[in-house]
Write a structure and sequence with these properties.
Radius of gyration: 21 Å
CATH architecture of the largest domain: Orthogonal Bundle
Strand content: 15-25%
Strand order of the largest sheet: 2-1-3-4-5
Largest sheet: 5 strands, parallel
Number of helices: 11
Order of helices and strands: EHEHEHEHEHEEHEEEHHHHH
Shape: globular
Helix content: 40-55%
CATH topology of the largest domain: Arc Repressor Mutant, subunit A
Distance between the termini: 34 Å
Number of strands: 10
């Protein structure tokens, strides 16, 4: 199934060459002539990325992007601004509105394709993280480059919304620390999953057990690899998601097997999911 790109531009007819290049690379291209039309399209289809003009009559691109990011069902879709507005204030406004990249017209197809491929891949990793309920029934959050919560699993959202829960400082100023405290719970950084985004695992204390101790001995990267394996991903899938080679995934799994005292993937997953209850 091909990736879907929504192209939003009031002069989309002038971008025919780009559309042809996108289609030749295997993308399915949908076109919206305005911000209002783009929001209507999103009610019916979930694109893998959006190429968005900033200057359009009616709802401009910046406001369109803000509305997209305000809707949980669409917020994960990467928005790449593609516009003739090239002054620094415009670029800053584009990123502040929620865009992940900014391409100045006249566009160069090769540049757009390269940027698009990167952002679609990163967005897919984040989207898969929604499905990857962690190895112990914990919470999962993704934090953007500005220290803002970009996505939360249902369990994490419930924990973070509890009355009296201490706010976690996700700011860049504390980015070197690998843990955060949320009352009795702990947030542990798993690593980078996107364009300046970081994945964190939220856990809460449980009764001590030998299996708990073995799982706790895993490094953040080893735990992350095991979590993807537990969701049925192949080594090659995990390598693509985490941006590493299949050989490195194999090496992490060797360490996982050794620390958990098991010999197979099935046994490692069984132990992890049993702890998740």
């Amino acid at each position: 199934m091909s990736d879907v790109v929504l192209l939003v531009d009031d002069a989309a007819h002038t971008l025919g060459a780009l559309c042809r290049e996108l289609e030749s690379e295997g993308y399915t291209v949908l076109v919206a002539p305005s911000g209002e039309a783009a929001l209507e399209r999103l009610e019916w289809v979930g694109p893998d990325a959006i190429l968005l003009d900033a200057r359009m009559p009616g709802l401009d691109g910046f406001e369109t992007c803000r509305r997209i990011k305000a809707e949980p069902a669409w917020a994960h879709v990467p928005v790449i601004f593609m516009t003739g507005l090239s002054e620094t204030p415009h670029i800053v406004e584009g990123f502040a509105a929620g865009g992940v990249d900014y391409v100045v017209k006249p566009v160069r197809a090769a540049e757009v394709l390269a940027r698009l491929a990167t952002h679609v891949r990163n967005a897919r990793a984040t989207r898969l993280a929604r499905e990857a309920l962690d190895i112990g029934g914990h919470g999962l959050v993704v934090v953007d480059a500005h220290g803002r919560l970009a996505w939360q699993s249902p369990r994490a959202r419930a924990w973070l919304a509890q009355p009296g829960a201490a706010a976690i400082d996700w700011s860049a100023a504390g980015a070197e620390a690998d843990t955060r405290r949320l009352g009795a719970r702990v947030a542990r950084r798993l690593g980078s999953v996107g364009f300046g985004e970081t994945m964190w695992l939220l856990t809460e204390p449980g009764p001590p057990a030998a299996a708990d101790a073995r799982l706790a001995a895993l490094t953040p990267r080893e735990a992350e690899v095991l979590s993807w394996i537990a969701k049925g991903k192949t080594n090659r899938d995990v390598a693509e998601i985490l941006g590493m080679s299949p050989r490195t995934v194999n090496k992490h799994l060797e360490h996982v097997f050794e620390k958990l005292g098991v010999e197979t993937r099935t046994a490692a997953v069984a132990l992890a999911t049993r702890q998740g209850g």
